[in-house]
Write a structure and sequence with these properties.
The complex is a heterodimer of chains A (562) and B (198). With 562 residues, chain A is mainly alpha-helical. Chain A contains 17 helices and no strands. Chain B is built from 6 helices and no strands. Chain B is mostly helical and 198 residues long. Classes of the chains: A mainly alpha (562), B mainly alpha (198).
Chain lengths: 562, 198
């Protein structure tokens, strides 16, 4: 039974106490740690660091494209910018941030004291960190086409034959390959750890049917990582064989095929999008109920929809290749599967709406980010269904419409939920409340910036502006739109600055948060903020999906109805 | 609390924390299977598409002896597992050594096959598309055998110093799962390379 005794008393450690220890001791503690909370925070910090770097790369690209015939950066640099921006955002921002949240909160939510394999957890983090360092070392050691030091410039999906030795001499492409290979090993390690933790480390009474949706969805994500990162690993091994051992996998002159690289890449690449967005769903599924004061609507259907998204996502990859030219059977198949994935996704949207419907809504900063996510993810899904129709895709494939679509998914969907999560759990992790006003400034500035940039990005796409062009002539009708898109970036940066200031200030000066500032229901809120190293003094026993509700409302507990 | 009369069903956890090693290994096997699948697909897709010789039919012979050796090693490792479960460390060391010997025989047999292919038939990883896909797929499996042999040898060293005891049976079992996987992959590779795409 989860009773009053198993809940930690609010412990408030004054910041000065932790700060007086020697710096070396504190750094050493973090480097050798195997604690899931510290590793989770390191993943999140690592993701935020690269978010800033990749954001600056995007800013440089938008300055370059703000006006026609611009020469802010050279064409070669532009190629490197979009390659590094895409690669960084997917592998060094999205995955580490989501692994960070999973690491920190999955054990807490299932009432465990740590992950199943703490040392593997540390190994995985440091492998990912090494992968990022290898990728960014290319700026110094790449030695590509342009003399000493060059970052990869082959695009984030590195299509053959661009990556062949003849077209990509030097080592810049190899930094891309090896960096991702190494961080991929880290991802497989973490995914394995999450699945095992969820299956084997749950506290008594925490049946699969009572797990918070956050845990369920992260387990589905981790299971997907196991089977979708591996094809990329395999393809990268083949690429290394081609480049260093003289192999012919992607060498058309010896009978190889460049198209097979595309297949292998997108067998990884499309499920990867769901690997990124399912944890976003997981975050929304925790935050929306708490701030609607209602349990999640359609728990079982949410789990089923997530599983079917995971399953269907393995069979849609070639919709990235409609413009390559496939048989009409292939086109029809991949159009149908892609459209089918809209069904479970739509179910989820309706479930979140059903949770909010009739609820007592509290528009705190995390909730505002989640509501914006709902609206934006709907639009992102609709443009996705437009692009899934292969004849439509022949017109707009490789245009700015596609760029707008997937940024709508990954920023409008994923980044908004990540911000929601950062605000929602900041009190738990730091022990302090953030500044609500500054948080709302962040939300509104970022929202305006997002819509200025990505709503208007659809239009030059429809007008024929291809993605990845370095510059464009005046008089094509693209100038105004590109200027608006670039202006949106200023608002987004202003929003991000509000967030950084808010969190730094609140970390030191915010008012104490207590154990459970949001009156929430999952187990992490029963521990002190921040949680002790051992998480739970006594392992809790749960009897329903909302253990803290049962505790707070002994007269009307949930388990009577489940 | 008052309402504890409605008991919590205690048997709802089929997987306890003591099974985490096995679950973790199964996850690793899932990930490895995906890697092998991609290489197998590439092999089948490129079968017969090589622009220069030699062809598989001209140079490949079904490696019967080393395959039997590798498959037998799955049997010997099961015997070793059973021995350590009963706490018989000597018997365990014997069967464990037999497993290593069979694995090593497989590696030596492959080395001999590759030597013939390279020096008599001129088939290398860069000589033709067939060479690239052949050495990659068989080599990927071989690298897994070598990793397995390394692990087996480390355990063997511990066993020789008498450090492997009954309480390690679960961990030995987890490692054996990996070895069984390496064997199972050879069934697929053998069928694909030496039978279907020949």
């Amino acid at each position: 039974m989860l009773d009053g005794d198993s809940i930690s008393k609010p412990v408030f450690v004054p910041r000065s106490e932790t700060m007086t220890r020697p710096l070396f001791d504190r750094v050493h503690e973090w480097i050798v740690t195997v604690d899931h909370k510290k590793l989770g925070l390191m993943y999140i910090g690592y993701g935020i660091l690269f978010l800033v770097i990749a954001g600056l790369e995007a800013t440089a690209m938008r300055i370059q494209l703000a006006v026609p015939n611009n020469h802010f950066v050279s064409p070669q640099t532009f190629n490197q910018l979009f390659t590094m921006h895409g690669t960084t955002m997917v592998f060094l921002v999205g995955m580490p941030l989501l692994f960070g949240f999973a690491n920190y909160f999955v054990p807490l939510m299932i009432g465990a004291r740590d992950m199943a394999f703490p040392r593997l957890n540390a190994w995985s983090f440091w492998m990912s960190a090494l992968g990022g360092i290898i990728l960014y070392f290319s700026f110094i050691g790449g030695g590509g086409l342009y003399g000493a030091g060059a970052a990869p410039d082959v695009g984030w999906f590195a299509y053959a034959p661009l990556t062949a030795k003849a077209f990509s001499p030097g080592h810049s492409t190899d930094y891309w390959t090896i960096g991702l290979l190494v961080s991929g090993f880290g991802s497989i390690g973490t995914a394995l750890n999450i699945v095992t933790t969820v299956l084997c480390m749950r506290c008594p009474g925490m049946t699969l049917n009572r797990m918070p949706l956050f845990v369920w969805l992260n387990m589905v994500m981790a299971a997907m990582v196991l089977i979708v990162i591996s094809p990329l690993t395999a393809a990268q091994i083949m690429l290394l064989i081609d480049r260093y051992l003289g192999g012919h996998f992607f060498d058309t002159q010896a009978g190889g095929s460049a198209v097979i690289w595309m297949h292998f890449f997108w067998i990884f690449g499309h499920p990867e999008v769901y690997v990124l967005i399912i944890p976003g769903f997981a975050i929304a599924s925790e935050i929306i109920p708490v701030f609607s004061r209602k349990p999640i609507f359609g728990y079982a259907i949410m789990v089923a929809a997530t599983l079917s998204i995971g399953f269907l996502s393995l069979g849609v990859w070639a919709h990235h290749m409609f413009t390559i030219g496939m048989t009409s059977y292939s086109n029809a198949f991949f159009t149908a599967t892609t459209m089918a994935i809209g069904v479970p996704t739509g179910i989820k949207i309706f479930n979140w709406l059903g949770t909010m419907w009739g609820g007592k809504l509290r528009f705190t900063v995390p909730m505002m980010f989640c509501v914006a996510f709902l609206f934006q993810f709907l639009i992102a899904g609709l443009t996705g269904i437009m692009l899934s129709a292969s004849p439509f895709d022949w017109q707009l494939g490789n245009s700015y419409f596609v760029v707008a679509h997937f940024h709508y998914v990954l920023i409008g969907g994923l980044v908004f939920t990540i911000f929601a999560a950062l605000y929602y759990w900041f009190p738990k992790v730091s022990g302090r409340m953030f500044n609500e006003t500054l948080g709302k400034w962040h939300f509104w500035l970022f929202l305006i910036g997002f819509h200025l940039t990505f709503d208007f990005m659809h239009i030059p796409g429809v007008l024929g502006m291809p993605r990845r062009i370095y510059t464009y002539e005046a008089g094509r009708g693209w100038e105004v739109w590109n200027l608006i898109i670039s202006i949106g970036v200023i608002f987004q940066i202003a929003g991000i600055l509000c967030w950084v200031v808010n969190f730094l200030w609140s970390y030191f000066k915010g008012k104490p948060a207590g154990n459970d500032p949001w009156d929430a229901w999952t187990l992490e809120w029963s521990t002190s903020s921040p949680p002790p190293d051992y998480n739970f003094a006594t392992i809790p026993v749960v009897r329903s999906r909302r253990p803290l509700w049962d505790l707070k409302h002994p007269e009307d507990p949930d388990w009577k109805y489940e | 609390m008052a309402a504890t009369t409605i008991g919590v069903p205690q048997n709802e956890m089929p997987l306890g924390h003591e099974l985490r090693g096995r679950v973790g290994m199964w996850c690793l096997i899932a990930a490895e299977s995906a890697i092998f699948s991609i290489f197998v697909v590439a092999y089948l897709y490129y079968a017969g598409k090589s622009l220069s010789g030699p062809t598989p039919r001209e140079v490949l012979e079904i490696p019967i002896f080393i395959s039997i050796a590798l498959f037998s090693s799955s049997f010997t490792i099961v015997r070793a597992e059973r021995a350590i479960e009963r706490g018989n460390a000597k018997l365990f060391a014997g069967w464990w050594f037999a497993t290593i010997a069979l694995g090593a025989f497989f590696v030596l047999g492959t080395a001999r096959e590759w030597y013939t292919l390279i020096y008599e038939h001129g088939l290398t990883i860069s000589s033709s598309l067939f060479g690239t896909t052949f050495y990659s797929l068989v080599g990927l499996h071989l690298s897994h055998v070598l990793i397995g042999l390394t692990g087996l040898s480390i355990v063997m060293v511990f066993a020789l110093f008498g450090k492997v005891k009954q309480e390690h049976a679960e961990r030995i079992g987890v490692f054996a799962l990996y070895w069984h996987f390496v064997d199972a992959v050879w069934v697929v590779v053998l069928t694909v390379v030496y039978v279907i795409a020949r």
